[in-house]
Amino acid sequence: MRDEAYDRIRQAIVDGTLAPGTPLRDGDLAEQLGLSKAPVREALRRLADDGLVDSKPQSYTRVSDVMSRDVIDARQIVRVLHEFAVREAAARCRPADIAAMRAANDRFAEAIEARDIAAAVRADDELHDVPVRLAGNAAVAATLDRYTPLLRRLEHARFSSTLAWNSVERHTHLIDALEKHDTETAVSVISTIWTDLLEDR
């Protein structure tokens, strides 16, 4: 039940159902989710650790700002780790890996066209997971799992705007570079993708 409360509250924060600054009261949330207060309290503590919730004992618990210090720090870590993954993966990419990335980018474009942001995020994850998997570094994968959720609200905002089509194009450039085993170009493109997630807002 703790995991259910965590997943549902986190998703509501990420997709904007719970907007930045929204007060979070464990009793109200428990009633809305059909859960007891205990798992909701635990979920809020975990979300505070994740940087998605701001909490001050005996004062407030609320949804954190989209552009908090935690988000800026997470973007930097995520960018560097994706650069590392792409650098490691560039020499290892095989035709099947390239095909998987192109298929994911096609699904991403279709989701953007349909304004299905949840599907766009899933397709984006599938695309970027290929070089992360090829890099074969468990610590990198685990750290990305830890920090990427902090950036979801930025992704939702970007993928619901015309800027999403820039992402389709950059994905294509990344895939083309990996197909050619052009490491430096691939690293440059992935760096731009994650830098612009913050700067294009």
Automatic annotation (TrEMBL):
Lineage: Bacteria, Bacillati, Actinomycetota, Actinomycetes, Pseudonocardiales
Superkingdom, taxonomy of origin: Bacteria
Keywords per UniProt: DNA-binding, Transcription, Transcription regulation
GO MF entry, a single one: DNA binding
Source organism: Amycolatopsis mediterranei (strain S699) (Nocardia mediterranei)
SMART domains from the UniProt entry: FCD (SM00895), HTH_GNTR (SM00345)
Chain ranges of the HTH gntR-type domain: 1-66
Listed name of the protein: GntR family transcriptional regulator
